[in-house]
Sequence to fold (598 residues):
Amino acid sequence: MSVDGWKTILVLGGIRSGKSDFAASLLDDQVTVRCVLTTAVEGEVEQDRATRTFRQRPAWTIEQTDSDPTQLVGLITGTAPDEMLLIDDLGGWVSSLLDPAREPSDNDAVIDALAAAIHDCPARLVLVSPEVGLAPSPVIPVVGHAYVDALGATNQAVARACDSVALVVAGQPIWLKPAAARAPSTPSAVPEPVAGLPMPIGTSQMATPMLAAPASLVAAPPMVTTGLVIEPNMQLPMPDEPAATETLGRLPALDFAGTGLGNLEQVVTFAAGTQGTTPPAPWQNVRVLLLHGDHEGAASAGTIPGESRRRADQTRAGDGPLARLAAEVGASVQVVAAPTAAPIEHGAALPRPDVESALQFGWRLADEAVNDGVDLIVLAACGAGSETAAVAVLAAAAGAEPTAVLDRVYTPGDGIDDAAWMARCAAVRDALHRTRTSPREAKDILAELGGGDIAVATGILLGATARRTPVLVDGPVGVSAGLVSRDLAGQARHWCLLPDHGGHPTVRFAADVLGLTPLFDLRLDLGEGMTALATLPVLRSALALAASVPVHPILAGTGPAGPDAEFAEPEQAGPGPTTVVDEGGGIGADQASTPPAV
Fold:
């Protein structure tokens, strides 16, 4: 694999963990790499073991440092910007650092010099090092303690200096320090374009109200993250199940006059799991990510030319229904221009490298939103032909019958265009026939059928999952991205909430496959993302009630029937007001304190 967006990476791991193989794979796309071994290897067997990974790449060169640890510092400092350097490993460098022949010496100063050289290194640099406690150390206690101390100090200093840090366990990388990490941006910041996309990805930030989120609501960085290395079967965080279970058990005891929140209990337990708290707090800082990416060819049959562009420009200017609804609920909106997809009936929707870039870009969008304090993302889309592409994705990923899940084509004024619907069905049919022998992996489906908007949406779901941030989905692009994300990280669907299916057959089918139960059956069809915004006040109200309403006094043990209540003999009832019938036939309380004489 190769990684974009980094300059220096530290790869940690135990003995025979596969750390060297993984480090080499990070530079697989490089023709020439300088591989530096830090210790002399004795014997043919050990020599072959130490260099077997690098010898598989004939163009790579292998060199050796001597026993002077300062040589490595000078080697790193003297690299050129166009060089690729792989150092294996720092454990051997620490051994040379502790060589008795160098005593007395200031080892801390040498470690600091190494970290400074790595930080300022002009070349791309991958360093391998054994993690403390996962690699053998000298058996002599005094020497062993000194080695562990020096190795720990070296790893910490180098990790601070590197852009990214990965821990390899059983050949599987766990990213401890993502390559995409950046300082939080301001709400008006525009994400940087991603190299490799066929068209620039542009975004704009509307001047809609953005409610400040309390520190406790801002999602914490993930325990496990893959940075920008997006691969199948990634291990991303799951919601906090104990918090959700505890919240679900608490809801029936709340002091409601009725039976409770009904279907809205689902949103309360969902929020508890994603926030990891009981009870959860209402979402305060919401961002709508509106994806605008058209699909050429018959996929967009029946659409008004330029209509999707008009919608995007309208929203970008703070006008139109989406922008107005967002302002009403206090959400910010970010318009994201995704790559245009080619006609799927004739060829791939998007080149494979552009799929990688779109996935990474979506991940960065989610990452930047969380850095800005966003605690809920609403996924929206307005691209021409996106529904057709979503149907093609559902057919390839979940075996959907296109004619059953492709919604009818509606025109302004409540008209129906059956000819356009048939053209879209034919496009999906031809695309599936064209790709009948193609792999059905996530990235293959995105490249052949999904296109840019669904690829960016998939990256958003993955990035939000990595940052433990929930996402509201309610349209074809969102749910199709959820289906694709299953192969990349099965945890992503557990961070998605479906307020309403809107009566859309594509959404209903995908929701069933993903196990997403709609909260409502409003059948709103306002445009993808708008149903989520329309239901947001109700969702917030449910969370506010669950957080503020106390447990019923009887169940809390504080009411008259509680376990601490004392039995009191009822008082004898005395004379009270007498009910009489007045002259007008009405019933009222007698004005006299005693009944009238007979």
Q: What stands out?
A: The longest strand covers residues 124-130. DSSP finds 20 helices and 17 strands in the chain. The longest helix spans residues 141-161.
